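__Record contents__

***
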Amino acid sequence: MKHRTMAVASAALLGSAALLAGCGGSSTTTASTGGTPVKGGTAVIALAPQTSPNWFFPILSAAAFSDVNTQVDSMMYRPLIMFNNQDQVDYARSLVSNISYNATGTRYVLTLSSKYKWSNGQPITAQDVVFTWNVMKAASGSNAPWTYGGAGIGGVPTRWTSVTANGSNQVIVTLNQASNPNWFIHNGLGQIWPVPASVWDKYPTNMNQELSFIQSVANSPMNAVYDVVDGAYHIQSFSPNNQWVFVPNPNFGGHKSILNKVIFQYETGDSAEFAGLKTGTINFGYLPPSEWGARNELTGDVLAPTYDLGFNYLIVNMNPHAPGGLGPYFNQLYVRQALEMGVDQPAIISAVFHGQAVPEGGPVASQPKTAFTDPSLDNPLYPYNPAAGKKLLEAHGWHEVNGVMEKNGVKLAFTFLAVSGDQAQTDLQQILKQDWAQEGIQVTIEQQPFDNVISTAQQSNATKWDMADWGGGWTYQPDYYPTGGGLFATGAASNFQGYSNPTMDQLIKASYLPGTPHQTLAALFKYEEFAAKNLPVIYLPWPAAGPAGAGALIEHATSLHGTVSTFNVITDMIFPNYWYFTK
């Protein structure tokens, strides 16, 4: 899973132009397709407010495990396996041409395609894949200089026995226990984004030194190590908190870009981004919910409310050293139930998202519909009822003193660490604060930029926050088979909240087991249903999403085409190499 926020969702466009909604007098369902392509032009993509890519090595650290980093990194590097909009392996666009496996799902043979090469003309080899896996494995260890954000997803690293090269174009992966191949291909093998070992393998006999080197250049995209790529673009230049400029890779093995440049642009806030859309300095951006009433002013744009595969939530700190002694109480289900009963999802959907969101009752949102979406969880299991939430607290010994619930000298009064720079998120935070106050739960909102919220929340000592929300939850990447191993399993890398439940652990493990399609789906749904009931997180409505870090409604210029039709709703990736302008 990747951290996604209202201010951090990558371009969540659906592939059907028929889903486009009108915006102003210029909007039609045909505006995003057709026309005669004009070679050249610059696509300017608005990032979410106060959000910057900060990790350019495609194996992301836990602190940098966000959609915006994946979206920017995908300009330069390709994953080993690509998935289509039906969540199936797309061999035509993958670095592998074939995957075979044994009956128990413990041995996988991957044959590399010859279609894609590194930009220096060298082939992508099995040795590159093995090196990349070794980085992932080492960064998943307890004493690594940085922690890989995907640790715990796809059995990384404990289920993997070995990754070896059989010649230059075949990789053999062995596991130590029987596994559901569908799950492992999606969530295990799907995590590998190869890098050229000839460029990156600086310390062949000292992996900790290698990891330290990677960390030292992770946010230095102009370093020479980024010169050799296999993606559609090279990075040309960047200016921190300003823009990141990409130009086409002439040796790309796939569909080559006819755009001259693609620029990811930093935004100070919603109003600045909206002004850029109006003036045309941004041609691929988002309509902030706060500007919903002014949408008709964007007469040269098309509006596209869409959903990507994921879910929305905030976390409470269940770690023992949470401030104010609240960790053990947040660890009690009834406290989390009371918090969930204070979430007025219908009001948030109406007032904050203007109807462009869906209610959420579990760890896979009801939109978009996939085979992995449990239809019984379309609505919350704990609907809005602050009176009932307050009674639940009182039934467990809490009593109200000056408007705040107390028990054993502990107060349900704490700091809510929340994302800044997005008016919709500010409005959502205020609604939550007011509704929780009805239950005697007092929160003090402390807004910080997205990167700060993530880095603070993921600190292992967990002593600086009680509640955190980076503004929109997660998208399922790289766990395209949406199990909770990377987020809810005990000790998972992205389990910042310190949640631990043996039943959850067993259900997650069961979803990894091989079986018939009916059996494996039933196991996945059992996990989803328990996650809905046991509330490892507090669920919030799932909003329609927008481009490259902006979880808001997509806006793009009527002259810019291919943005919607080429978007992959499963992997949450944009493909500017298919975009083009018309006169």
User: Anything to note?
Assistant: The chain has three domains: 2-76+231-306+547-581, 91-210, 310-543. Residues 13 and 564 are 5 Å apart (CA to CA).
